[in-house]
UniProtKB/TrEMBL annotation:
The lineage of its organism: Bacteria, Bacillati, Actinomycetota, Actinomycetes, Kitasatosporales. The keyword Oxidoreductase applies. Residues 17-313 form the FAD dependent oxidoreductase domain. Keywords: Oxidoreductase. This is FAD dependent oxidoreductase domain-containing protein. The keyword Mitochondrion does not apply.
Length: 417
């Protein structure tokens, strides 16, 4: 909410929320699914884990956004919340209920989309795309891993964190002016609770520690989806890191003490698409007929009804939402934070990682660590570019591959300043 670009992304989320009821109903009618929804509303808690610069500020920002958009919510007494029974040192201080913020069973959603699509005479091709065919300044189609070629004058790349791998056919001067993509790799768990009982609503904290907050999402048969970690990685990953599993399992104490008696049914590993400047890539990619619909980071599934309608209009030449043009792929790096704001966010989120890991250190050590982090990140910022500042999670990643990608992207526009 501190920059025009962040507010534009928030506006997209709010508009997408208004589309979901009709979108869900249409998918249910056009598929074999009885329902896609898995939770009624969301309870946001502010507990004693984390740091006030992030958790308390995030909680206040949520309320400010709800007020601004006239979205209903109500304050709750955290001690009276059903299902929640945390360890005393993790107890919530505040809570609010957002009745229009629901959750979906994503497996049912994907089944419903596939069924509705094929019944509408769409064709699903079960093969990976390995390349995009471009001749001159026009798109001709795609090449499949089977060697088959699918011809089309229009191609939409919506492959999440893997989207960048399909831009190799673009001329270098165009490719370098599109933000590269890295992965927000994360782990989540499907847990069968000890009592076989899940909450009726989502229960979550605000975003913190570079991640999307601790959240428990009800699933069928008394299970919960527990998520989720977020680590910036140069490449997508498909196996969970032990450290992420340890963090999630340790976080169960923030929700219910007896979750340690439950059972892990499944481990999920996913990769969020994170552009080098942190904002979506929506629109044509420098050659006629090639489109990007990716880079949505944590918002893609939620924004899908909005983006689907908008891109259908763009591809068929109908009026589209020009507000999304701010996120055109061929762009100079979006600067949503000053260098000072980026530095402070990187320091505070890194410290929050320690508290979420329940570090046991002398009380006088955190200020020393904070001072060292500020010095380390400040030196790293000075090495990046005099004009451009990366998102704080990329600054804190300390990845040579990501640093080199940032330098390449910044050079493409630094020469034009």
């Amino acid at each position: 909410m501190q920059s025009e670009y962040g507010r534009a992304k928030l506006a997209m989320d709010v508009r997408a929320t208004s589309l979901w009821t009709e979108w869900e109903q249409q998918l249910v009618e056009e598929s074999d699914e009885k329902s896609l929804r898995s939770a009624n509303g969301t309870i946001v808690i502010l507990n004693t884990i984390g740091v006030p610069e992030i958790d308390s500020a995030g909680y206040s920002s949520i309320r400010a956004a709800l007020d601004e958009y006239h979205e209903p919510y109500e304050d709750l007494d955290p001690e009276e919340l059903d299902w929640l029974d945390p360890d005393p040192v993790s107890r919530p201080l505040k809570a609010m209920f957002i009745p229009n913020e629901h959750a979906l069973n994503t497996q049912a959603l994907l089944r419903g989309l596939a069924t509705a699509f094929t019944r509408a005479q769409g064709t699903l091709v079960d093969a990976h795309v390995t390349d995009v065919r471009i001749a001159g300044d026009k798109t001709e189609g795609v090449v499949l891993s089977t060697g088959e070629i699918l011809s089309s004058p229009s191609v939409v790349i919506a492959a999440g964190a893997a989207s960048r791998d399909l831009l190799g056919a673009l001329p270098q001067d165009i490719r370098e002016r599109i933000p590269g993509m890295v992965s927000g790799y994360g782990v989540a768990l499907l847990i069968e609770t000890a009592e076989g009982r899940a909450p009726d609503s989502v229960i979550r904290t605000p975003n913190r520690a570079f991640a999307c907050g601790l959240h428990a999402v009800p699933r069928e048969n008394g299970r919960i989806y527990l998520g989720a970690t977020n680590n910036i990685s140069p490449e997508p990953r498909d196996t969970p890191a032990i450290d992420d599993l340890n963090l999630l399992l340790g976080c169960t104490r923030q929700l219910r003490k007896d979750l340690v008696d439950g059972r892990v049914d499944k481990i999920y590993v996913g990769n969020r698409p994170v552009p080098l400047d942190g904002f979506p890539l929506l629109g044509e990619a420098g050659v006629d007929g090639l489109w990007l619909m990716t880079g949505t980071y944590r918002d893609g599934l939620h924004q899908s009804p909005l983006l689907a309608q908008d891109f259908a209009a763009r591809l068929t030449g109908k009026p589209h939402d020009t507000d999304l043009d701010v996120f055109t792929p061929l762009r100079a790096p979006i600067q949503a934070m000053s260098r000072e704001e980026c530095l402070e966010a990187a320091v505070q989120h890194t410290l929050a990682l320690g508290y979420e890991h329940d570090w046991g250190i002398p009380v006088d050590w955190p200020p020393v660590i904070e001072d060292q982090l500020r010095r380390l990140y400040s030196e790293a910022l000075d090495e990046f570019d005099p004009a451009f500042t990366p998102p704080p999670e990329l600054l804190a990643s300390a990845s040579p591959e990501i640093n080199e990608a940032l330098h390449t992207y910044y050079r493409a526009y630094g020469e034009r300043l």
